[in-house]
Amino acid sequence: MIYKVSRIVSLVIFSVLIIIPSLIVVFGSTKTDSEVYNKPLALPEKWSLDNFRFLFEVSNVGRSFLNSLIVTGFSVTITLILASMCAFAISRMITVTGRVLFSLFAVGLAIPGQVNLVPIFILFNDLQLTNKLSGLVLINIVTTLPISVFILTAFFKELPKEMYEVSEVDGATPLRIYRSIALPLSRPAMGATAIFLFVITWNELLFPLLLITDNDKRTLPLSLLSFRGEFFSNYSMIFTAVMVASIPMVVMYLLMQRSFIAGLTAGAVKG
Length: 271
What we know:
The chain is mostly helical. It folds into 2 domains: 1-48, no CATH class; 60-265, MetI-like (MetI-like fold), CATH 1.10.3720. The chain has helices at residues 2-28, 33-38, 50-57, 61-92, 96-109, 117-126, 133-156, 161-169, 174-185, 187-202, 206-211, 220-224, 235-255, 257-265. The chain is globular and about 70 Å long.
């Protein structure tokens, strides 16, 4: 009884902590800036979509939104392809080579991106990849590949090896086994990893802040900084931009909800 009551109380407190900030953002996106400062918790005096209209017609957020879609789409797709191939190869290498390769990717998780900011900027500047969306795609792939390989390798190792052996007897090549057996069976893990990578890449601010200076090449998180100044912040526009920025993540989760839940529970029960 005590456990049940404490669980309900904990869930209520957690829900309140999530719902209240979310409502402030939703209501704030339809308020004027003075209303946000004077009555942050109150309902809008007049419901208006002027902030959204200003966001796309006057500011450069529409272009930044498209840039984020391009960078995130290419980054996630290429990372999933490379990570799944690496994870499939590592999972089939029972020798020392497989363990060494897996350890190298694991080491990549321990190195924070902030440590390499200076050499990354120098390298990308020499390669003329600054102020280019392709440069952002490349650095996103490099930084998210280790965690992707780490997640997918654990899943590929759970697949029955007998299927691989039967396919090899029938004459299937490693590429055919990967394409026709491993990939279809790994859809739950791929879906969960895709959502994970999408959230990371979509919200990435550090590398766009380092590599992008052209307004037309800015991503959405970088454009949000333009509404925040040293002495004044336009919170109504910040809330509006946050609402717009959250839409792709919500849509992504709704489309891949089943794969995400299946990926989280994959391997939880054996036998």
